[in-house]
Amino acid sequence: MKHILFILTIISGFFFTACSDSFLDKSNPNEMTTTNYWKTAADLQNGIDAAYRPLRFNGSYGRWLHILYVQRSDEGYSTSPNAYFQSYSNFLVKSYNDYNAEAIFYTWLDTYKGIFWANQVIDNSKNISMDEDLKKRIQGEAYFLRGLHFFNVAEVFGRGPLTLTSFAGGDNPVNAEQPQILEQARKDFDQAILLLPVSYPDLKDIGRVTQGAARGMRIKVLMQERNWADAEAECRMLFALKNASGQPLYSLVPNYKDNFTQVNENNSESIFEVQFAPGLQNGQEVGCNRAKFMGISADGLSWADAFPRMSLFKEFQLENTLSNQPDPRLKATLAYYDAANSTELFYGKTWNQLNLDHNMVYWKKYTNYDTQTIEDYDSGINFRLIRLADIYLLYAEALNELGRTSEAYAYIDKVRRRVGMPDLENSTVFTNIGNDHDKMKAQIMHERSCEMAGESTRWFDLERWGMFDNATNVSWLKNRDADFNNFVIGINNRFPIPYREISLVPITQNPGY
Questions:
Q1: Which of 95, 174, 375, 479 has the greatest number of CB atoms lying within 10 Å of its CB?
Q2: Any bridge partners for residue 288, and if so which?
């Protein structure tokens, strides 16, 4: 998909002909409209290529979703001089009525743009004569993209309109709560599974969504719905997918770090990733802003906007590898002063040369610390939205919730072995778990913290585990992240809906705002 760097931006609109003046009734022959577009197979192909673009918008995986899912969770915090930015982490959102509240405004706006663009493909594909197999594949891609955007609406805002058509004059969209939105996302992934191929033979199509990607997102929805039985079954369906040689389609890569750099992108562990590229591509910026906001803040390398919590740093230190070395995921995830390796380079300089505080910890995952001398706004590192290790741990969680705790060990061990950790049943640190559901749940919470840190999954985990639901669980979060001292149950688990949307949709504002 990096070869398809967004052939076009779909232009559509509604045209009114209330005036009889013949001059005003004339269309600009150089402008593409809904009356002269959506006619050919090429139009549809260009349309679906363009529909991937909102995934890279600032309100999506280009910037703000990482902040909302990582920094808002117990993994991170902010000391940004921008009060709006701090408020995304410390639950003290005061204003959501202007463009300065970018994470709120643009996440809503860009997510619904993505839904609208996907709807255009779905709506207009039905009337285009073309190869039916290709049409179905394109429709499957559109259903996946729409489902993904609905999933993010559900997890960030918790309510929103279910816009299921791009046509003017259609039914007014239903204003839905989180359960309905998640259900719609699941229905979209169901459709995508039926329509998408397992893989693409042509290298130019690498990065397009596949049946495995749709199954992966369906698993994530089912887990958020706590539908453990269906999630467990869907995991088995994903594991059963084969490549052309009859081997399992997905497998863990040997080097954990390969999941977060430009090296070995779209690898065997990656089920779906958002495609980014550095610099200008065909005159367009198609890079990711994440590294600029979530890297080391020294010498202009990155902004002081997002940091990992020390509690996360300590989580990695609970257990060493079989060779009594630190968990290698620590070095791949976080940047910190290591006295035993004081010559380690970050953007070409040592920790001391950068005059960094020895007690500070920074995000390293998804940054260019070892290939560049500074971060900019167009990192080329693809964001791995779904990867196999994540699914293994979700499968273990589903098994545990189904009372099949003994079966969960094998899938946790797959993840631990990759980084040289002892099998869980042989651990000298985490002992006496046995078949105890609660102990295994606590262990899975630890495993996901180390394996998935900084990957924009933690917010889903905390919600699914009920950590926002009662004072006892919120107190646990407070011990890990001081920002949760401001957390109000029933309010701060959701962001406010941008003020202007309340009257435009119309829709009811979230409680407490």
A1: 375
A2: 379
Region 437-455: mean pLDDT is: 98
Given this model, what pLDDT does residue 503 score? 83
**Sorting pLDDT into bands at 50, 70 and 90, what band is 6?**
very low
- Return the structure tokens found at 168: 């003017």
Q: Is the dihedral of CA 415, 387, 62, 500 positive or negative?
A: negative
Question: For 364-393, what is the HEC assignment?
Answer: CCCCCCCCCCCCCCCECCCEEEEEHHHHHH
pLDDT reading at 19 higher than 80: no
Identify which of 213, 192, 244, 34 has the alpha carbon closest to the alpha carbon of residue 124: 34
Burial per residue of 251-273, b for 16 or more beta-carbon CB atoms within 10 angstroms, e otherwise: ebbeebbbbbbeeebbbbbbbbb
**Alpha-carbon distance 234 to 238, whole Å?**
6
Between CA 338 and CA 341 the distance in angstroms is: 5
Q: How far apart are CA 193 and CA 209, in angstroms?
A: 10
- Enter the pTM of the model: 0.93
Distance of CA 406 to the CA centre of its chain: 30
- Asked if pLDDT for residue 12 goes beyond 60, the answer is no
Beta strand segments in 35-143, E: 76-77
Question: Which residue is associated with the tokens 């045209």?
Answer: 15
**In which element (H, E) is residue 90 found?**
helix 83-90
Q: What is the DSSP letter of 67?
A: I
Angstrom distance (rounded) from CA 299 to CA 317: 29
Burial of residue 471, with CB atoms counted within 10 A of its CB: 0-12 exposed, 13-18 middle, 19 or more buried: exposed
Tokens of 384: 């791995």
Query: Domain locations in the chain?
Result: 22-242
The first and second tokens of residue 12, run together, are 């559509």
**Helix, strand, or coil (residue 46):** helix
**Nearest Cα residue to 412 out of 379, 451, 470, 385:** 451
**Which residue, chain included where needed, has tokens 């949760």?**
484
* Residue 467 DSSP class: T
What single DSSP character describes residue 71?
I
Neighbours of 382 (CB within 10 A): 26
Query: Are 58 and 64 contacting, i.e. CB atoms less than 8 angstroms apart?
Result: yes
423 class by beta-carbon count within 10 Å (0-12 exposed, 13-18 middle, 19+ buried):
middle
- DSSP helix, strand, coil percent of the chain (3-state; round to 5): 45, 5, 50
**pLDDT, position 9:** 36
Coil, helix or strand for 305? coil
Determine how β-strand 383-387 pairs with β-strand 270-274: antiparallel
CATH architecture of structural domain 22-242: Alpha Horseshoe (1.25)
Q: Does the pLDDT at position 289 exceed 90?
A: yes
